[in-house]
Amino acid sequence: MDVVVLLLALVVILFGAELFTNGIEWFGRKLDLAEGAVGSVLAAVGTALPETMIPFIAIVFGGGGASTEVGVGAVLGAPFMLGTLAMFVTGAAVLVFRERRRQGVEVAVDQKVLLHDLRWFVLGYGLAIGAAFLPPGFELGKGGVAIGLLVLYGWYVRAHLAVEAGERDEDLAPLRLRHLDRGRGHHPVPRLRVVGVQVVLALACIVVGAAFFVGAVQGLAASLGVGTALVALVIAPIATELPEKFNSVIWVRQGKDTLALGNITGAMVFQSAIPTSVVLLFAPAAWSVGPDSALSFLSAGIALVSLAAIFLPLRIRGRLTGRGLAVGGIFYVAYLALVIGGLARPSA
């Protein structure tokens, strides 16, 4: 039964992702936003917000203890999955769809947008991880970091929204739900409210599909005897990051690489600022490096190394390929081996 639910949930998420990518492009067109703002802000926040509710509920309403641990693990797991596995999936999609893409295996991305996102991510995530090394009882300092992260994210969004839209994308597909726009006849440009309905419906499909997917994965893991720790650190984060992965695959297939990668890098900036601020404000004691949390915080370091391995060649040579993005998979597998090895090691 869990397998059936798993497959149905994937179909719902894919349907939602297809609706969302189409709707959010039209949303950006109606608001006259630049491509970077559409991918890195609108798409990234839209798909990251639902999964952010998991650590928020666990930390704020979970009652402490195990719930807080789950929340902290989810906050650390999201940037790691995006910086490793999501990059691998996007790179693999570039290679799979190379015959139908005008640019083939080359990733034709706006470097200015991408490197802008990465700089803000490294700055925000570096501050957040640095706060974990503050001495016990220094909650005031962690609260200050949280406020700083919120301000940084505000400046990041402002910078994207301030960029003027460039040339219009002639490949923008018709709105999927354009037939709901009654009274417009065959007018090619839908009204904003109809675009908004499609985006909200798409997000609802993504949220519902992801919720059932996570539940099915946990049920399947239990029936197979997989430990809950492995589910929390590895399997569940894969499920919660599915929307970003599917959105990026759809845009890669269409040859819209800036939207595809901006969706991931923008979500990383969001995840490094907003969810970490929640932990720092509501559970500052839990945001600390120790024997029990060392493996989780190690994922942050691996994510940064993975991003360096992928994007430093872009910065140096000005060129990025599907194979270059797929390098992120190596770092994901390395962390997976560390997690399995750590869980298999008998406790003292």
- Count of DSSP-assigned helices: 13
| CATH architecture descriptor name | Up-down Bundle
Helix-strand category: mainly alpha
Number of strands: 0
Quick one: CATH superfamily?
NCX, central ion-binding region
Major pleated sheet: none
Could you say what the CATH topology is called? A middle domain of Talin 1
Rg, alpha carbons = 20 Å
Number of domains: 1
Shape: globular
Show unreliable segments: none
CATH top level is Mainly Alpha
The ordered H/E elements are HHHHHHHHHHHHH
Q: Determine the strand fraction and express it as a percent band.
A: under 5%
* CA(first)-CA(last) distance: 38 Å
Residue share in helices?
over 70%
Give the integer mean of the pLDDT values.
Answer: 85
Textual characterization of the structure:
By secondary structure, the protein is mostly helical. It has a single domain, classed as Up-down Bundle (A middle domain of Talin 1). The protein has 13 helices and no strands. Helix 5 (111-131) packs parallel to helix 10. The longest helix is centred in the middle third of the chain and has 33 residues, at 192-224. The radius of gyration is 20 Å and the shape is globular.
